[in-house]
Design a protein that fits this description.
Helix content: over 70%
Strand content: under 5%
Number of helices: 9
Number of strands: 0
Order of helices and strands: HHHHHHHHH
Largest sheet: none
Length: 202
Amino acid sequence: MPAHPPSASRADLVADTALALLAERGMRGLTHRAVDEAAGLPQGSTSNVARTRQALLELSVRRLADREARVLALHEMPDPRTGGTGSLVDALALATHRALTRNRDLTVARYELALEATRRPELRAHFDAAGARFREQLSQLVSALGSADPDRHVLSLVAWADGLMFSCVAGTYHAQVPGLEQVRTGLRELLAGMLGAGKGVV
């Protein structure tokens, strides 16, 4: 289970433990009692934070969005208007590679929650809202690079990254995780096709 500093909130501890359990045991292994035990909390502590299973799942989705935002670190990306497409390639490649390696369990938890959201419309709303934050920021970045169709290009970028991550985390390429340079090359090729070879994709 994830380690937390003394200042970490009880809700963050519960949510992080829930995400760790999802990655380790799957959706069926996520219970209030299991979170209490794994987090070393007194019995009933998780219920005090998230009374129902739906509330626990929503808490997990919100925490997932916060943690993935730190992995992606879009706010730290260079301005494409000054750094060019190469800066976006480097930043997205690093974020994708982090999701495949040191944040692999977080990626597995995301897929567990995504599948559960297909069966729970009320969870779907929270899951989609979290994803929209990333898509909006990415749309601004590709627009700054001269994209003629930002929405379509963002869909292609997200689909490419999601496909790569699923294949290498849970699919048939799970034992063949690409290195950072391979991820960078794939993104460079994709953006070159979208924006045109003359747009400075290096």
